[in-house]
Amino acid sequence: MPEDLGHVRQMWHLLEPLHAVLYYAPEAFEEAAALGYRTDERWPSYFAWRAAPLGPATAGQVTSAFYSFSPEMVARYVPDAWRAATPDAVLAARLRAVDRTYRAVLGDAADSAELAEAAVLTRRAAEAAEPAGRPLAAGNAALPWPDAPHLVLWQAATILREHRGDGHLAALLTAGLDPVEALVSFAGVGAAPVKVFESRGWSAAQWDAARTRLVGRGLLDEHGVATAAGRELRSGVERRTDELAAAPWAALGAEGGARLAELLGTYWVAMLGTGLLPGENTLGIGKV
Question: pLDDT, tens digit, for every residue of 102-140?
Fold first, then answer.
């Protein structure tokens, strides 16, 4: 009987908003503006915040690590990101942004014993995440741990999030899905409307060409909807992603994982309650 990996996916769902709020919070845009980044759209700071652990990475390196963004889109923001500020300056501002955001959203709970306990458990899981072959997880894992528990929680959530994401890319590659095909096939199973995936910068011609390739492989019908084979392939990708993300949670143990899930619920609700995070996203959370 296949292993039940529901707890692995549950922890991802609980931690993702705690990580992703950085990309939408007004406090983060203020810190980005202070560094010299444009804030009329979120992408200049997004690429800086997320890629900074890699050092002054080239556009090609970021395209490879992020996978689903078109090379043309990445090239609009990288390496210009490092002309505005050094990666070290970005990392320092990133922690300031998280500190301000968490304190604004959580209030006194940011200094609570419960959050400190959640930080200890999440860090334990993050330190069990194997970084080999996972560039974004490795970059974040190599950073020094901050002192404040709420910053430890965010950094640990980020390591685990990128560890899972790096594994997801391996699953996509194994399934024979290139970056744009990965998005087209995900839209095909109803993870999110096609329009949501336009944020990754692929042209209509590139999207249509990928859809044609997937139709030729019997994974989509002529309307772009996944066939039975397409759904089976995507289900396999998601299961393999869960399998590759399971080790940190096995290290935490069933009791530790259950306690962490209990603790995180309050902060998950608080982050979603801000209204900052999009209801539909390219991760398909809540859909698959």
Answer: 999 999 999 999 999 999 999 999 999 999 999 999 999
Over 80: is that where the pLDDT of 40 sits?
Answer: yes
Residue pLDDT, tens place only, 174-195:
999 999 999 999 999 998 888 8
- Does residue 99 sit within a domain? yes
Query: In angstroms, rounded to a whole number, what is the distance separating the alpha carbons of residues 211 and 26?
Result: 37
Domain total in the chain:
1
Mean pLDDT across the stretch 244-269? Answer: 97
Q: Is residue 1 part of a domain?
A: no
Answer yes or no: is 278 within a domain: no
Max Cα-Cα span within the chain: 56
Q: How far apart are CA 219 and CA 201, in angstroms?
A: 23
**Rounded to 5°, angle at Cα 171 from 166 and 175:** 145
Residues for the chain: how many in total?
288
Query: What residues make up the domain containing 102?
Result: 6-273
Answer whether 170's CB lies under 8 Å from 205's CB: no
**Residue at 173 is within a domain:** yes
Structure tokens at 93: 């501002």
Which residues does residue 220 pair with via DSSP β-bridges, in sequence order? 226
Give the C-alpha distances (Å, rounded to integers) separating 152 from 4, 102, 141, 171: 29, 12, 12, 29
Q: Quick check: pTM over 0.90?
A: yes
